[in-house]
Amino acid sequence: MIYTNHKIEFDAEKCIGCQICYKACFVDVIRWDEEAKKPIFKYVGDCEHCNYCEIKCPVGAVKVIPDFSSQSFRQTFDIYSKNNTSLR
Ligand code: SF4
Ligand code: SF4
Questions:
Q1: Is 90 exceeded by the pLDDT of residue 59?
Q2: pTM, to two decimals
Q3: Which atom of ligand 2 lies at the shortest distance from residue 38's CA?
């Protein structure tokens, strides 16, 4: 697992408690607060920046802010540039 510094902004006022973000996250960054009926972005360091939580939220209560200096991004860019001859 590569840890990142992606940030997640969550607007609890907008959230309608549908659990979509919680169910969408494939790396279990998001836990569920049964009492408050809201997501808890608990393990943000594991976030893979797939953006599912942001895209799937029906009310725009989640925003993922990528850390472009993270190791995972650099690896992706390296692979992309190796496979893209126009960047050489
Ligand atoms: S961006 Fe993807 S990995 Fe990160 S919290 Fe959202 S669903 Fe999980
Ligand atoms: S998808 Fe959006 S509205 Fe639904 S629980 Fe998550 S933050 Fe709240």
A1: yes
A2: 0.81
A3: 5
